[in-house]
Design goal:
Layout lengths: L2 H9 L1 H12 L15 E4 L4 E4 L3 H6 L1 H9 L19 E4 L4 E4 L3 H5 L2 H7 L5 H4 L21 E4 L3 E5 L1 H6 L1 E9 L5 E8 L11 E6 L4 E2 L5 E7 L5 E13 L4 E13 L2 H7 L19 E3 L23 H7 L4 H12 L9 H20 L4 E4 L2 E3 L2 E5 L15 E6 L6 E10 L3 E5 L12 E5 L4 H11 L5 H4 L28 H12 L7 E4 L6 H15 L5 E5 L2 H9 L9 E3 L31 H5 L3 E5 L4 H5 L9 E4 L7 H11 L5 E6 L11 H8 L3 H6 L14 E3 L2 E2 L4 H11 L5 E2 L3 H4 L15 E5 L16 H16 L10 E4 L3 H13 L8 E3 L1 H4 L4 E7 L5 H10 L7 H8 L2 E9 L1 H4 L3 H12 L3 E2 L17 H16 L15 H5 L9
Helix pairs in contact: 11-21, 12-13, 12-21, 13-20, 15-16, 25-26
GO cellular component, one term: cytoplasmic ribonucleoprotein granule
Catalytic activity: ATP + H2O = ADP + phosphate + H(+)
Protein name: RNA helicase
Length: 987
Amino acid sequence: MAISSREAHLQGKRHLRKSNSTSQSAPAPPPSQPNLGSEMWTCKPCGRQMIVGNRNQHLQGKSHKAAVKAAPIPRAVTASAVPAASSSQQWTCEPCGRRMDAMSREQHLQGQRHRDAIAQPLSVQVAQGVTPSHEEGMSEEVDGDKNGFTIEGSLDFKIVDLASAARGITLQASVKAKATFRAEIVGCTLASSKGQRTCSPFTVSIIGQNRTVSPSSTVQLKVNMTTQHYGRAEDRLEVTLDSPQLRSQFVIARKLCVHVGDQSTLNDLKPKIPYTPRDKSAPRQPETKIIPGEPAPFSSAFPYARQLPRAKIPGPLANDLSSGTTREIIDKMRSVYLPLVFDSTGYGKHFKHIIWAEEYQMDLDMGHYDMHNAKLRKNNQSYYLAVPGLAEKRPSVLVGDKILVQPHGAPTGIWFEGGVHTIREIEVGMKFNKKFAPKPTDLFSVRFKLNRSSVRRQHQALDWKVVQERVLFPDPEHLGSGGIPQGLPRSTFNPVIANNPRQLQAVTSILHAPAGSVPFVLFGPPGTGKTVTLVESIRQILDANPHARVLACAPSNSAADLIALRLLELGPELLFRAYAQSRYEDQVPEELKPFTHRNENGHYSVRGVDDVKRFRVVVTTCISASIVSGIKIPPGHYSHIFVDEAGQATETEVMVSVKMMADDQTNVVLCGDPKQLGPVIRSSVARRLGLGMSFIERLMGREIYDEVEGYGISVVKLTKNYRSHNAILKFPNEQFYGGDLEPCADPAVTNLYLNSPHVVSPKFPIVFHSVFGKDEREASSPSYFNIDEVTVVTSILEKLRKDTRIPLSDDDIGVIAPYRAQVLKLRAAFRNRKMDATSVKVGSVEEFQGQERKVIIVTTVRSSREFVDYDLRHTLGFVANPRRFNVAVTRARSLLVIVGDPNVLSLDPLWRSFMNYVYENGGWTGPEPTWDTTEPVDFDGGYDVAIRDQARAEMEAFSRMMEGSTPDGRADVEGDVNVDQPWAEMD
């Protein structure tokens, strides 16, 4: 701006207000300073030194205003200060990444583009002075010449092995002058030293006594790096120079970085193909003609007397689901499709539309697995297709499914349908129409089609006309007047229950509940013996009532198998394990095979209605419970319906058994823990409309299921934990269960790792291993992995397995990761290091629910602020998902190890509180926390906002800013998120 305009601006209210706000947002003093009130500050225009506490008053004074008016140029300290503003000089605005002539600087700083740039959130690591990733947070602008002065010499320590890093490595650099004038070094610091509680592996010192930099004199710097921990670290070396010729101080800076890791692991696991997002702009072209293939011979496996409804998504609903934002779609659903009131009258209509929304997303997600340039291998009459991820059910394919293939060069829209007859570990076998006669060299496009049988069974249940009000919407008027049932069993089948009053009460309440009671809830927190109590209840019912019949269900085959395995003493005359026809023989536990039936084609089936009726207990999955209704076993045949792990099933899945098989005399028992993982929901629309809330969770929100008032009548909460060491149990107990859980586990197991080299604190079997890593992706997969955390986990696992003093098998170890890509990288690392660790289970949190291990290692993967924002929006991973956190930390019996980036995890109040707990109990290893672990945690959150505010304050103090970014909030990422979601079992 012109000088006259400049003088008017300096006297204006806007400038004075900005000057005042800048002073108020100044960063906290370094730890070596006393406090804000006694720190000294120099006003350059006035040439006066004063304590910081008097700065605001000084800035409003007449003497300061006069000095500013008389000053020839603004005296701001910048990283690229210029002696004077002329049109020939260039200036870089680092937040915007633009270079311009210095005369345009003031105009640019007032522009909208600059204001938008500085409004961007900063990397959390920049806010704290140390950035763990080479690629993030550090602008390349920090390197290079400033006013003719430079730092020469590489300060990139590159990849260093742990042993060398522990011994320490030193690099040297020189501060040189290319200008014709001299400057004095008045400061040589690291950016990390300005943080409140920062950790840096770097130290810097000046070699010798010389501090003058001139054309004939250089100053030598020594930078040392020492650390005993894997991971990445960055810092910024800031050299402040004072030049009499420039009449100002200025800063030149250089990035410091190091990557401590195993070179071979990094080479083996690094992305083989750079990440390129899938093209989501072009939708699938419609299939105009499908040539049917040969279906699997399932038609006679079950003597179904009831046909499933087609229940196709209505056209108008499909159109509405395909356009608009999530918020707009939800509003449209509520205003057009859903009943105004959620009650028994509109119950079916309400859920039918919501599961249509879920089906719509499931169908889109199947498109993620579309294949191009695929080859088929012919063997007899079948064609085999290799499918990446098949063993992990990504995609989920069952015998009886249909897969579409299209030869390259075929007319658009014409596809051949292959009926899936065989599934092997990595390939599927299909049979096509006789017209299908490809050459061995032909290439194909492949589409996987959603198996709709599960959805259709849920629609069938929702269409069922009979409505049990006392089951769906139980209220006080549905309760009997008898109070808490009494009359303990004469003896228990499981002797452990005899010493557990709450388990005994649960069994007694279930046993003596009058026919037609409200659903009974058995609330079983981790390790409290929920399934044991369920099995004891079934045994007591059968023993007390010779006419009783039980239908026992669970959301997954593994959970259903567990029930059946614990009922083996009933014998095959009384117990039947019903499997879907798509189940393979090798998927069935050997002990259960005598309790099943297979037809002449080898498919699982039933003999007939009368045969099934004679069994006193039928065990199946929630969806396959449709077998008993499908063969026309009448409602009410089963006196009791049990649903185990009810918190993991959607309400509509539970209704397949409850709504179709219960009459007004049937008692329903729901066993689960709504504080742990709920059902897997792929559609954010369906989730927000309530499909993610399980039936047991919805009921527990009703008046009659109060844990205290309803105790023994409608609900019993189990409280004795038989799994974990008290230190492992303590935090989740207080966070999720009101401190009600009592540690009752076997000390011989829980104390295994006390006083061992595997823990940091001798009496505390939890370790938080702090590591700054890097999130990466490869090829077209949106799933993340973190090689640095893989390195740490592998190191921990090797030490555990080599320790012969503590008895531990691979089956005793579990590794939990939130991303599918991390799971695969971990398995690859085990193989590459020739670790015969195939029995070590590595999987997602969902794969561990209901399970336990002596040792659990959790890798949290994330190390970038923007990825945390992404996950907060889509409830992926551990951050901002209390249920996943709860399950992850409650699987361990003897030792719990968490590997993660504390700076990122600390943004979530729950994780911050947990890390405080570990740190205060001495279980921390690796770089220290950067926050005060003794401060109370604000569970309203806002830590990400505080980090950004702190970053801006530091930016203004240094007069520069690093660029930051967040993912596009409008991106089509729902399908990307669902890549890491497991597929719910369809059988």
